[in-house]
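Hi there, hope your week has been kind to you so far. Thanks so much in advance, here it is:
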Amino acid sequence: MHSLWLSVTLLLGSAVLIYLACEFFVNGVEWVGHRMAVGQKATGTILAAFGTALPESVVTLVAVAFGAGAASKDLGIGAALGGPLALSTIAYATVGVVLITTRQNLPAVCEGFRSLRRDQGWFLAIFTAKIALGLVMFAWKPWAGVGFLMAYALYVRQEMGAEQGEEEGDLEPLRFQPKAAAPATSIALAQTLLALIVIFLASRSFVMQLEHLGPALGLKPQLLALLLSPIATELPETMNAIIWVRQGKYRLALANISGAMMIQATIPTALGLFFTPWMLSPPLLLAAGMTGLAIVAMFFAFRRGRTSRVLLAAMGLLYLAFIGGILGLGLAG
């Protein structure tokens, strides 16, 4: 009992530390993007997303390449599917709930939202290929991983060269140089990297506590990776979104989520293809189905150039439907 309460305490403490570190991270990465003359959307989809998603990809690499036994590889594959599920449901829903609770409204029509449609389209095409590969077995499947890495490189090239649109809000003073009107790029970069290190360490602590709680809840490794671990590993992106929504930078918040989803659709998948058979079990296929539904809904919402806080909040229902499906179909055993 003492160990259980200690795990819960460390879990909550890690979540608080992640949020505080994210405050410094989003502040620093905005200044880094500004000094590099990168638009706000690319700052969210590339710089912020890559920074927060990189540690998760390292975790997947360790699980599938260096893990001992099938359980570790199952954990890695589960994380590769669980990440997009958590981002497309919980992260978007969190943005909607924050908008509702703070009584903020999204712009009625925003060209920036139309540009986010392209991200959803990219993700949907890559995600469909990712799931299709998990249904068949063939000898040269590992080589398909190269294609996913190339797809992400192409996405980055397109994002960096795309029209970024109007900026949202003003840059807040850099936390490490609060009195400087134009802080040094090196200081902004140092703040961003230090915050990222704290986020990584706190996230690992969060995941460790979940791994301790998982057996107590009777969860197998792959289900732990699908149900609980993504909540931890995608927590930085969700916290970033909360902070940017609070600042009125809605497009930046949503761009960070969509950019992180592109990373989750490509890099962990490539690692899984390189080091595992990449055959998807029924729980993973259910997770894929819920992720696909969420992305299709957001694609058509962004295509109109508008979305609503209620629609965003409703994405969380798909995650609850996933949990209900796992329990109802007896896939948790």
The two ends are 24 Å apart (CA to CA). Residues 27 and 172 are 7 Å apart (CA to CA). The mean pLDDT is 81.
